[in-house]
Design a protein that fits this description.
Layout lengths: L1 H12 L3 H12 L6 H13 L3 H14 L3 H16 L3 H9 L6 H17 L3 H18 L2 H17 L3 H17 L3 H4 L1 H13 L3 H5 L9 H17 L5 H10 L5 H17 L3 H13 L7 H20 L10 H10 L7 H13 L5 H10 L3 H11 L2 H14 L2 H13 L17 H11 L4 H8 L3 H15 L4 H10 L2
Helix pairs in contact: 1-2, 1-3, 2-3, 3-4, 3-5, 4-5, 5-6, 5-7, 6-7, 7-8, 7-9, 8-9, 9-10, 9-12, 10-12, 12-14, 14-15, 14-16, 16-17, 16-18, 17-18, 18-19, 18-20, 20-21, 21-22, 22-23, 23-24, 25-27, 25-28, 26-27
Length: 487
């Protein structure tokens, strides 16, 4: 039994929790002390995202715990309660464990720090998590050190302190790389780093965050979805990243499906597919998986409300919502209570999309949290001349092309001149492309253009694609408008 336990520990440390779990199940079929085996199996199952099985294993371990294992299992139970949002119960249980073992103490402090932060005492929670880091350093246990850093960066990010979270995360990853342990122990730290880099608009750095094969599938998928969201906001196709994320998840996973729905909604909205974005968000928040956090539900509601507003403002042959007011009320009714400063601003955004809050005030809040894309979006929605110019500069700096186009449309409608000079130029078009553009402006179909210019429909389709790409237009109507504005 002891040999099997050591092999399982080695596999778990090598970033192979599934293989470790298999080894543990074989050992559990034999005789011997089962508690330590179950304790490690609980950890492997939890890391792999099999939470129901992990909880059953933990309960069995609790019934067998004796001696030093009592404290370990108690902290594991506190960790479970914390993951379920039962912060007071988890903090009480973690605080009841008295030990001289720095490894166990670091685990207890990690749990307690998160609970304190999510009960509203962020400064106290971060101080407790720093103490967890110190205890983990003394113990020499890399697992507890990465747990403490992972929880600390998570708490900081949730509190809107993304710069500090990103700095600590990058420092920790550098240390793990030097020790040759980054692929094995860095999953949570990498994900927290990815979310902070996204929030800070440091999207190039986000692109460079590696996703090693040794990272558990659920964490790898979430990092890839974060990259997909950044790609969509830059006007890039995120489908490959979303597909890669789906492959990283082992089998059906309701939590991943809900998180994937958000990334798909962001992508659909960036492409102007507003109705699809609304429906994705509505369906997901109507029956969200239990493990979906309040913040994730909140952002799904916000995205759905924003897409619904875009849909009502869109021109052309756009399929409208049957009952936009009912959709708005439905999404507002599903808004969860916020957890921390960032969630509070997201909740304000939801009400602003429904015309019930001030976009100018929201932009200031995003500035305070150093989230430039969200601040630029809020200024775009406000429609004030200086706010639009400010938003335009931010969008150009971030490379946020869909937002830049939204700003441009808003500015043209309100006759507000923008300051950047990289406007699409008709001079980049070939003579034949100019002919095609002129006929587009008259509302001709590709078939009608082909007949008039004596070209094949396929050739006309290629010319139309080139015209849209060169002018940075999302559709034929926008290309025609650009031409009218510059002639």
């Amino acid at each position: 039994m002891r040999d099997a336990l050591e092999r399982a520990k080695a596999l778990r440390s090598a970033g192979r929790p599934a293989d470790a779990a298999l080894e543990l199940r074989k050992a559990l079929a034999g005789a011997g002390d089962r508690c330590e085996l179950l304790y490690l199996l609980w950890d492997c199952q939890f890391v792999m995202g099999d939470r129901a099985a992990a909880f059953e294993t933990l309960l069995e371990a609790k019934g067998l715990a004796a001696g030093p294992m009592v404290a370990r299992v108690a902290i594991a139970e506190a960790s479970w309660l914390m993951s379920q949002g039962e912060y007071r119960e988890a903090m009480t249980l973690a605080g009841s464990v008295v030990t001289d073992d720095d490894e166990i103490r670091a685990y207890a402090l990690s749990v307690r720090g998160v609970c304190e932060a999510f009960l509203g005492e962020v400064e106290r929670g971060t101080a407790t998590l720093e103490a967890a880091r110190t205890a983990a350093h003394r113990s020499g246990c890399v697992r507890e050190l990465t747990r403490a850093v992972g929880n600390l960066t998570y708490v900081l990010g949730s509190a809107g302190q993304h710069e500090r979270s990103a700095r600590i995360g990058k420092e920790a990853l550098t240390r793990l790389r030097i020790q040759g342990l980054a692929p094995t122990f860095s999953a949570v730290i990498r994900y927290n780093l990815a979310t902070s880099l996204f929030a800070l608009g440091r999207w190039q750095e986000l692109d460079e965050v590696e996703v090693p094969d040794t990272i558990p599938g659920n964490k790898a998928a979430r990092i890839l979805l974060c990259k997909a969201e950044a790609a969509a906001l830059r006007g890039r196709d995120p489908d490959d990243l979303i597909e890669e994320a789906a492959k990283a998840v082992d089998g059906p996973d309701a939590l991943f499906a809900a998180q994937c729905a958000y990334a798909k909604a962001v992508a659909a909205r960036a492409k102007g597919q507003y109705r699809a974005a609304v429906e994705l968000c509505r369906e997901t928040v109507a029956d969200p998986p239990e493990a979906l956090t309040r913040g994730e539900v909140l952002r799904l509601c916000v995205e759905g409300l924003g897409a619904a507003r875009d849909l009502q403002a869109a021109g052309g042959r756009v399929t409208r919502l049957d009952d936009p007011e009912a959709t708005e009320l439905e999404l507002l009714a599903r808004l969860p209570m916020p957890h921390g400063p960032e969630d509070e601003v997201w909740r304000r955004v939801a009400f602003a999309e429904a015309g019930r809050d001030s976009w100018a005030g929201i932009a200031v809040e995003w500035d305070r949290l150093k989230m430039p894309y969200q601040a630029a979006y809020a200024r775009t929605r406000s429609g004030e001349p200086e706010a639009l110019r400010h938003a335009d500069r931010a969008a150009q700096r971030l490379g946020a092309l869909p937002l830049a186009k939204m700003i441009d449309r808003q500015a043209r409608r309100l006759r507000i001149p923008l300051l950047h000079e990289d406007k699409p130029q008709l001079g980049t078009l070939t003579p034949r492309e100019r002919d095609v553009l002129e006929l587009l402006g008259w509302g001709r179909t590709n078939k009608e253009i082909a007949a008039e210019l004596v070209l094949s429909v396929r050739t006309v389709g290629l010319h139309v694609s080139h015209v849209l790409a060169k002018l940075g237009a999302s559709n034929r109507s926008e290309a025609a408008r650009i031409a009218r504005d510059q002639t």
